[in-house]
Amino acid sequence: MTSSSTPGGTLLALLPWLVALAIAAAVPLFLPIYMQRVAVTCLMFVTLGVSWNLSGGFAGQLSLGQAAFFGIGAYGSMITAEHVTSDLLTSIVVGGIVAGLCTPILFPAFRLRGIYLGMATFALGESMRVVAEKVFPGEASGLHTPVVFAVDSLAPYYWALGIAAFTIAVGAWTIRSRLGLGLMTVREDDQAARSIGVPVALYKAIVFAIGAFATGLAGGFYARYLGFIDPHSVFHLDHSINPVFVTIIGGIGTELGPIVGAIFWVILQEVLRGLTDTPAVNTIIYGLLLLVVILVVPRGIVGESQAIWRRIADRRRGRRTGKEIPVVAD
Prior knowledge:
Mean pLDDT: 85
Low-confidence stretches: none
Strand order of the largest sheet: 1-2
Shape: globular
Order of helices and strands: HHHHHEHHHHEHHHHH
Distance between the termini: 30 Å
C-alpha cells in the first residue's frame, strides 16, 4: 500500500489543492468590480481548458467542437430557467446534463483521429449554431432571464470557482482511474489499446461526455450570469479555440497546464486590451504568441517547468550518490 492510498497520504496530496482553493476564495475580496469580472472569465477558461484537456491532452483526441456543448449547456440552462424553474443550481446542472447527453452525436466520429476528428467536432459546433438560429429565428433567437446577480455581488465569482474546482476534481479523479490509464494507452496507440482489451470507443465516449458535461456547466453558468444569450454568442468559435490555446500554453496533458494557461491567457488579453482596441491586431499577436510557445516551449509552461525540475532532481541525486546520471533530453 502506497502512502497516497492511506487517509494521511490522501490528505497530504490534497493539501496543496486545498491551500490553492483557499487563496482563490480570498482573491475577490481584494479586487475591484471590473477585475472580479475578469477573474470570473479566467475561471471559466479554467473549466473549459481542464475539460478539453481530458480528451485533447490525456486521451490525445483533438476536439474543436467545445462550442457545441457550451452553447447546448447555455440554452439548456436558459430554457430550464424560463419554463421549469428559476433555481440557479438546477438550471446550470440541467445545462450540463443536456450537453453530456448530446455526446452520442459524435459517436460516428470516434473512429477518426487527429485533424479528421478535429474537423468533425468543428463541424458539430458550427452545425449546432445553425440549428439554434433555425429553431429560434429572428429576434427570438435571443433568450432572456431575470438578472440573478447584483452588479457588485461576489456570488458570480464563487459560482465560477465552484464549477472550476468541481471540474478540476473530476479531471484529477479521471486521470488516476482505470479509465485514465486506458485513455493514455489510447493516446499512444489506439490499435495497441484495442489489442490488449481496452474498449476504445467506449472510453472515448465517456471522456467526451465528462468534458461535455463540464463544458455545459460553464455554458449554463455563462447564460445565467449574463441573463441573455443568442446563437452567435454561445456557439462562437472562441469557445472551441480558447480551451485549446490555454491548454497548449499551459501544457497539454498536465493537470496544472490549463489552470496556468488560463491565467496567462486572461492577463495577456487584458494587457492587449489596454494597448489596442483593434481585434485584427490582437488576433495577429495571439497567433504569434502561440507560434512562439509551440517552437520555444512545446510542452507549455508547466510541461517545460516539470522537465527542468526533473533534470535538476536527477543531477542532485547524482551528486548524492557520487555517480554521474546521464540527463537525456525529453
